[in-house]
Design brief:
Structural class: mainly beta
Strand content: over 45%
CATH architecture of the largest domain: 6 Propeller
Shape: globular
Helix content: under 10%
CATH topology of the largest domain: Neuraminidase
CATH class of the largest domain: Mainly Beta
Number of strands: 42
Length: 658
């Protein structure tokens, strides 16, 4: 139990120490937003002239990370500290004469086997004895040694009729699937379909391919697959260049079928097929290609692509969107690396580690980079324990997030920045820390500043309305607030009774503010209170001001701001999800192959996942709710338990299955 407590403590994430909450069911904005932590950016594979930028990453059952990339063959590397450092780079597949081994994918199976797939691509001059194909290797000792090459599929020997980009998915039955783009059925046209081959012996032998999707006259390509539950459904994201009005550009698109159908005698067709859906609610009008998709422990989906949306150059950047638990309604479009127009992020992918940390992986400057993002749907604000408003992170002074890092920001400026909050009966406390080595303070002209928007009554307005507030913390030492007059913001003025202090040094600045509840016209503050907030960090420069803003926020519409819940727990305590009682009270114990889940509130479902995303056991629907559930684990190693409570809140716990 002592080890389990340590594991659970480690699962408290920097940007979501208060939990990643499911938004209220009547919320106009129920999709989480990803807060990318600029300080977490790391190099996975160093710069090399042979790197294509194509890389994939997974978390293994022992908690370590394994990455694979294309580099004159196929290379792997390992991290034992959550991606901070990478070691053990080695080549597991060598290029053969006249054949390049390309675009790898990897997966850890339920029995611990690791499989790496790749795409042999002949070079010119073509010959019939060298074909475009899909191959794989497997490891049964956690990636230390690898099998001989295993045949999956061969297409033609020419580029125009080849096959491309393998991706693996394992079903609950144990069936292993390999999806890929396939031109070989269309030798007299430029069409392409998505195909799937199957293995029932852990990747040793494979079936003939079956069609998954085909839009006549077009090119479905670059598949990535996930399995949804309740109802069980296979969803494959592809690049689709056939959407009317999108000028032939590729757009991330999902195709799907019930697990019971499993692509047998069925495939998704053209534009009239209701199982083909563009993931965006708008047509980008520019290429948004090379998609990827993953699923968080609570079922939330995330998708990525390389695209030219909002780019003025032809250099592609990595874009990430967040969808619901049915892989629909994608929004919160963000750029994890926020590259300048002169740079590209190519052949990108996503990983999910610890159940709800999103890792974006991209090929930048011939190296492979990663950055961590934290999906948050409701900001849980702890009760203040000890706050001294002096602009210094005093010892024993605790905010809601670990090291004051409740909400990471700074992707546009590339300066690590963090917003945090706590509350007590008298004040709402705000703090902002910004790494900035070029602080600008011109006494009112062009200051570095942090603006926090507040909707203390949770009005969820669709336009600027009375009851909204805008607090500006200036690096020059001034604190002002504007109150909305309905159609416009009122004049900025000092706040009666407010406390504010900013301290600057060579590395940046730390701001602390205490806003009286009375200034926000709140008289009944208590735990469980719902609010809205948004933040904007302005960093002035010689030619322009760079602004870091929260994704999808419209400053005049509080319905787009982040939901906030005031928690009963003090900062620094083991914070859990908010509820009517103020404490979800979820405990998870794993002993002798049995998982026991207890909750102070009725549970709607419990799911147990391996770190690779495979559901191991659980109850997808608990009729009438239950406060106690038990399951047989059927596996060992690290796992994630996702508990959905009555009302839609989800709690995740990391455990050791033993």
């Amino acid at each position: 139990m002592d080890i389990l407590k340590l594991i659970l403590a480690a699962a408290m994430l920097p940007s979501a120490a208060s939990g990643v909450f499911a938004a209220d069911t009547d919320d106009a904005y129920a999709t989480p937003r990803i807060f990318w932590d600029v300080a977490s950016e790391r190099t996975v594979f160093p710069a090399n002239s042979s790197y294509t930028g194509y890389s994939r990453m997974i978390q293994l059952a022992d908690g370590s990370l394994l990455a694979v990339t294309e580099n004159s063959g196929i290379k792997i590397a390992r991290s034992y500290d959550g991606g901070d450092t990478w070691t053990g780079e080695k080549k597991i597949v060598n290029n053969r004469t006249g054949i390049n081994e390309c675009v790898p994918d990897l997966l850890q199976l339920a029995d611990g086997t690791i499989i790496v797939g790749y795409n042999p691509r002949p070079t010119q001059p073509y010959s019939a004895d060298r074909r475009f194909g899909i191959r794989c290797k497997i490891s049964r000792d956690n990636g230390e040694t690898w099998s001989d090459e295993i045949y999956i599929y061969d297409a033609s020997h020419t580029y125009d009729d080849g096959c491309w980009e393998p991706h693996f998915l394992q079903l609950p039955s144990g069936e292993l699937q390999c999806y890929f783009a396939d031109e070989s059925p269309y030798t007299s046209s430029n069409e392409q379909q998505i195909s799937v081959c199957r293995s029932t012996d852990g990747g040793l032998t494979w079936s003939a391919p079956e069609c998954v999707s085909f839009r006549p006259g077009c090119r479905d390509g670059m598949p990535a697959a996930i399995l949804l539950e309740d109802p069980d459904e296979i969803v494959v994201i592809v690049e689709d260049n056939g959407w009317y009005g999108n000028m032939g550009n590729f757009t991330p698109t999902t195709v799907r079928c019930p697990l019971a159908t499993n692509w047998h005698d069925y495939h998704v067709g053209g534009p009239d097929d209701t199982n083909r859906n563009m993931i965006y609610t708008f047509k980008p009008g520019k290429n948004m290609a090379a998609p990827y998709i993953k699923k968080l422990a609570d079922g939330t989906t995330v998708a990525s692509c390389q695209g030219l949306y909002k780019r003025t150059s032809e250099n592609l950047d990595l874009w990430v969107a967040v969808g619901d638990k049915r892989a629909r309604n994608f929004k919160s479009l963000s750029r994890p690396f926020s590259l300048p127009e002169s740079k590209s992020s190519m052949w990108n992918s996503l990983a999910v580690i610890d159940g709800d940390v999103v890792v974006a992986v991209g090929g930048i400057d011939r190296s492979i980079k990663m950055i961590k993002g934290y999906p948050v749907s409701t900001v849980g604000v702890a009760r203040a324990k000890s706050v001294n408003v002096n602009g210094v992170a005093d010892e024993g002074e605790l905010f809601s997030g670990e090291s004051r890092k409740l909400l990471p920001m700074g992707t546009e400026s590339r300066n690590p920045s963090y917003i945090d909050m706590v509350w007590d009966d008298d004040y709402l406390y705000l703090t902002a820390s910004v790494d900035d080595r070029e602080i600008v303070s011109d006494q009112g002209k062009s200051n570095d500043q942090v603006t926090v928007y507040l909707d203390p009554q949770d009005l969820r307005t669709t336009k600027l309305a009375v009851g909204l507030y805008r607090v500006t913390m200036n690096v020059d030492g001034s604190l002002t607030m504007s109150e909305s007059k309905g159609r416009t913001w009122g004049a900025s003025a000092a706040v009666d009774g407010a406390l504010y202090k900013v301290v600057t040094d060579a590395d940046g600045y730390l701001m602390e503010a205490a806003i009286p509840w009375s200034a926000l016209k709140v008289s009944d503050v208590s735990a469980g209170r719902k609010m809205r907030m948004a933040a904007e960090i302005s960093q002035a420069g010689a030619s322009a001001t760079v602004k870091d803003v929260m994704t999808d926020v419209v400053a005049t519409r509080s319905e787009t701001w982040m939901p906030v819940s005031l928690l009963a727990e003090e900062a620094g305590a083991a914070i859990s999800l908010p509820s009517v009682s103020g404490d979800s009270g979820v405990t998870v114990v794993s002993e002798k192959g049995r998982i026991t889940v207890d909750s102070a509130l009725p549970m709607e479902s419990v799911r147990v996942y391996s770190l690779s995303g495979t559901m191991l056991c659980g109850n997808l629907k608990i009729d009438g709710g239950s406060c106690h559930e038990e399951f047989i684990a059927g596996a060992s190693g690290l796992a994630l338990v996702a508990v959905t409570l009555t009302g839609g809140m989800t709690v995740t716990r990391k455990i050791i299955l033993k």
